[in-house]
Every structure is written in C-alpha cells, then in structure tokens.
Amino acid sequence: MDKVKIGLIGLGARGMSLLKGIFLKMDDIEVAAVCDLYEDRCNEAAELIKSERGVKPTVTKDYHDIMSMPEVDAIVIGASWVEHTNIAVAAMEAGKYVASEVGGAYSLQECWRLVEAYERTNTPCMIMENCCYGRDELMVLNMVEMGALGEIVHASGGYHHDLRQEIAEGNINRHYRLNNYLNRNCENYPTHELGPIAKILGINRGNRMLTLQSVSSKARGMSTYLQDREEHSELAKSTFMQGDIVTTIIKCAHGETITLTLDTTLPRFYSRGFTVRGTKGMYTEDNRSIFIEGQHDEFHHSWKDQWGNVEQHREQYEHPIWQKYLEEGVKSGHGGMDWLVISAFFNSVKQQTEVPLDVYDMASWMSISALSEESIALGGQPVAIPDFTNGRWINRK
Ligand SMILES: NC(=O)c1ccc[n+]([C@@H]2O[C@H](COP(=O)([O-])OP(=O)(O)OC[C@H]3O[C@@H](n4cnc5c(N)ncnc54)[C@H](O)[C@@H]3O)[C@@H](O)[C@H]2O)c1
Known about the structure:
The chain has 397 residues and is an alpha/beta fold. It is built from 15 helices and 14 strands.
C-alpha cells in the first residue's frame, strides 16, 4: 500500500492540529473523510483539505457513515474521551485500522470491549501515546535495555499541566474537560506518563500491573480561579468534584511500584515528572538529570550543580529511533514526538502488521482512570487491575 486513506473523527483542538500540522504534510496520507458532531468544525476541516489537496473529503456528523466507506483504510480518533471506545470498536468491526487519541476509561467494561473487538476481528488498534516517542522517554528506555540503570524498582510520572483556563472556558470552547471536572474525581489522564513507564517495565510483555490505590486531595483550584475572574462568575457557583492532586500507586507483578500524579488545577509549570529508579542509577525529568552509580558518586551531596546533565549522555544512550530522526530532520508536534507516533501507525497500516502500542496497552493504561475513581470513592482502598491479556502477558514479546 503506497497511500493510506483515513477517516478523521473528532475535529476539536487536537483533531485540527493533527490535520494541519501532520496529515496534510504527509504526501502518502489522504484524508478521505472527516466527522464531528459540530457542523462548523466539519466545514472548516473540509475547506482546509480542499484548499491544500484540491479534493473535498466526505463530510458527516455520524461516524458510522465512514465505517461503510470501502476506500478508507484507517480511522483516526480525535474525539472526546467518552467516545473513544465506541468509535474504535465500530472501526475494528468494519476492518479498519484504528489510531485512537489518548484518554482514560469510564468503566472496565469499556476496556474489555476494546480487547474483545480486537480478538474477534483481528484488526489492530493503537493508542496514540505520543509521549512513548519523546526523546528522553526513548533514551531512558534505551538506557534500561542496555542495563545502565540496573534493575528497575520504581518509576513515577504525572500529568502536571495547569489546565484551569481550558477547563474554565469549557462552555465557550465546547470542551469536554469541564463536565468531567464537575462530575468525576479520578486519575483522569494517566497515559502520558504511564505509557513510557509501562514500556520500560514490560507491562503486558513479561510483567503486568496488579493493583492500584488512589487518593485525592480536596478540590479548590478551579473555584479559586473562577472566583477571581468576573467573566466566570456563573461557573464559579458550581462545585467541582475533581480533586486538585490525585496520587495513584500501582504495584506490578515483579514487585515494581509506579506513582502517578494528576496535577491540573493549581498554578504550576508543565512537566510529566518522568522519573525512573534502578539499582544502578536514576533519571529525572524535572531537573533533566541522570545519576549513574560510580560515575557521579562524588557529587551526590551537591547534586544541584549537576542538574541538566542529560545532554552529556546523549551520544552514549540516544535511542536509535531518535538518532535516525535527528539525521532526517525533526518534524512538528510536541517536540517531534507526534510525527513519530503517527508515522509508526501508518507504517503498520502500510505493511499490514501489528501496531507498536496495541489494544492490550490501550485497555490496561485506560483502565487506570476507572479504577482510580473506584479506589478514591472507597477512601484509597486497593483495587485489582484486570489482566487484559488473560495470562498471555507472561510470554508476550
Ligand atoms: N496526545 C496529545 O498530546 C493530545 C493533546 C491534546 C488532546 N489530546 C486528546 O485528543 C482528544 C480530543 O481533545 P481536544 O482537546 O481536541 O477536545 P475537543 O473538545 O476540542 O474536541 C473533541 C471533538 O470531538 C468531537 N466529538 C465528540 N463525540 C463525537 C462523535 N461521536 N463523533 C464525532 N465527533 C465527536 C466533539 O464535537 C469535539 O469537536 C482527547 O482524547 C484528548 O485527550 C491528545
């Protein structure tokens, strides 16, 4: 297959930025159909495609219409979280490769539906976790595979992103996050940090996540933000259920622990807080440093002087994917990782092979949201994380 024809479903902020910044810049991709519930978003996308490529795509408000288009090879889902599974299952049933944007699940049943649709149809379904292709995330994966950090014992990360403005403007921007923050309390966005950690720990491939415990702080960030702004006086009367900081501890089958932190409604700098701890060393994102036993011991009491030493390790540990990418020229989207994850998906479609971040990754990573909601409601009690592979994790490569 030389050209991949896609249907793009969900044309909000993310769908449009993928269209403009990536799909329309890839000569081997044709956007054959676009879909959103909002007509103006459909029209904007269709006009853009017409002006760039000279052909107007099929436009629909009902994604089922695209499933019956035989010429469409793959579906890209940029819709809001609650629709990911419905669209992905419909696409698998129609025999179309699926690339789904990231998000968390609302129930475990949703995650099982994904797995069962895949096993019934054999149609690959990929979670587009771009952070798995981040430069440092891949470098640390490479370091772990080379044994530079020893045996991995613990990893942590978070979605540390001040989203107060985006949430507050939800009624203006027609954005789904506002209603989630008003109604739910959970680790609602686990995959940006969990995806790269899961790859490092071999989750679903020789290891698995067994249990989690989640605890939530009170919710004060949104109400304070809204009360301070006259234009939001109506929304300021609402009660937000989503705690400002949600901490989740996951225990894995081989004894490792993972800590995730959702931190989106207090003032702060952006970070994914990616940290990996092994018996021979550590990496930490927030001060961009690598500590390897033996190499740096003399500084361990005055480590602040060594902050930012990641660059010194590039030559030795840069992941081959990034070595090649730097030679070819880094492209757009979150420092280049968006282009990489999307290219990996399209390569799988062209070669009709399995996708690198598969349905078992998608189901297990997304399940954390539903399970954390349960654990928080139970006062932080441990809850079991299902084995979505039904035992195959032991031997899966
Ligand atoms: N990987 C990343 O870095 C990244 C960045 C931003 C957003 N995202 C993800 O992208 C997705 C969309 O986020 P966003 O910020 O663009 O949200 P958004 O609210 O701006 O857009 C979502 C769009 O989906 C549409 N939609 C909802 N249900 C639909 C349906 N049944 N059929 C067709 N369209 C439907 C909505 O009408 C809306 O236009 C989310 O899953 C989000 O987590 C990922």
